[in-house]
From TrEMBL:
PROSITE patterns assigned: DHAL (PS51480)
Organism: Streptomyces californicus
Domain of life where this protein originates: Bacteria
Annotated SUPFAM superfamilies: DhaL-like
NCBIfam families the record matches: YloV
Biological classification of the source: Bacteria, Bacillati, Actinomycetota, Actinomycetes, Kitasatosporales
InterPro entries: DegV_domain_contain, DhaL_dom, DhaL_dom_sf, FakA-like_C, FakA-like_M, YloV-like
Residue ranges constituting the DhaL domain according to the UniProt record: 11-206
Protein name: DAK2 domain-containing protein
Pfam families: Dak2, FakA-like_C, FakA-like_M
Amino acid sequence: MPQLPDDLDAVAVRTWCSLALEALGRERAEIDAINVYPVADGDTGTNLYLTFESAAAAVEAVFAAHETGTTAPATADAVRAMAHGALIGARGNSGTILAQLLRGMAGVLADGGGADRLRLALASAADAARQAVAHPVDGTVLTVAAAAADAARDAGPGLRAVVTAAYDGALAALVRTPEQLAVLGRAGVVDAGGRGLVAVLGALVETATGQAPVRSRGTGPGKAPVPVDGGSVVGLPVGGTPVPDALDCPEGGGGPAFEVIYLLEAGDAEVARLRTRLDALGDSLVVVGGDGLFHVHVHVDDAGAAVEAGVEAGRPYRIRITHFATESGHDVRVQAEPARRAVVVVVPGDGLAGLCTEAGATTVIARPGEPPASGELVDAIRRAHAREVVLLPNDAALRHTAAAAAEQARTEGVRVALVPTRAAVQGIAALAVHEPDRGFDEDVVAMTAAAGATRYAELAVAEHRSWTTAGVCQAGDVLGLIDGDVAVIGSDVPATARTVLDRMLAAGGELVTLVLGEDVPDTLADALEEHVREGHLAVDTVVYRGGHQRAPLLIGVE
């Protein structure tokens, strides 16, 4: 039997994330089914799952970075990664609030994860989430979070007592939500976001005690939950249809036409002004984050104005706009006839995103330290709106994420082929031979062959002294990685790049692709192009600007 934690250290946080993701995965469909507030679009469970998936992936990345060490990561590193992952991957109104709850907890747990720190963390989370919402409403996840914090404050000593009390308090508050919010009472359901939070807290109970709490179903508004074997917290009343076909409720329908979401790099003063402006434009406004990075969510009629407000405040990116159309009381996505085929490609910078978009692909930007989660790839497949999709992950580390996204899209009726590209230059090569007019299998084979025939390399700067396959490197050394392994250790970018090119071209090649990072001068490309021309007469060179990407230089040889 595994040893139970006395406090929430990094290992316990990792376990919590894994169990919470499993719980939200189990209950996702049921939570979607009871989603009537603030918009009855049936995606709260999915949004919570995708948000926590991003949080869990960020924690796993911290552990992966320490996998060669003898000790686990610091608790502060784990909880901050969890909060940051949720922030950048937050989906919808509910996911954005969940991200702020995790951020509020992380700010306290970074200094210790004992019982008293957890009490403070839950209180901080509830306060932070309420402050993030422009117009807080009782009977929502905010109420459930506050009840969890209140119960934890009055709990007995010890971590197990605190987490159990928080769960019980949240569950009791969840059952009362139909009394507090009229739209829930009319639909006969509990709050969907609150139910998701109860699932997350249930995973915390399992982490601390080793046993999942008895899942329950309510017997009616305001009544205590009754344990049911194999059951869960479901819409009220028991056995009823969770969401009617049409809801005569102003709170759940007839609102703005667009949902606008984006990440924003900006200062606190600019974000304060942005809140005021967006509040005047629409409703369901939630702005979470801090320290220069925020996640913005709002429902508006003028999506362009909402994005423009973000541009004036700072630098918005990962912008997602969803158009709602009301039909019989439900909000549904407006879709045109799907195209026959599309390509979805992950790229490391804005420059390549523009290049791939011009080539007709749907792009997902993988910013430094922010790999996309499977939910983001699924969203991109949906945006491509085609019956057949070729997915190019362009990173070996994304193969499992991409496979999960492809599997999810297939359940939605999309035929998806995953070409296992391991670098952006392989994706460029595959996209160059893409022909939507030929057969799907034939197109996939041609794209796979082009990617496989492209060797790839990148330059990186060593952050600390370490052993590599090419020997010992020092902090500040320039590393030349060929097909994922360190092959060259140099002192500057130009010389290292020339050595890497010579080694790659020694095995032959017809075309060299150079992708320059944001701060790399054009003179480097000119010098490398001349170097290739002088040493390899039959080899052509093409140069692209990659924009803000992790590596100063990417190299491909076909």
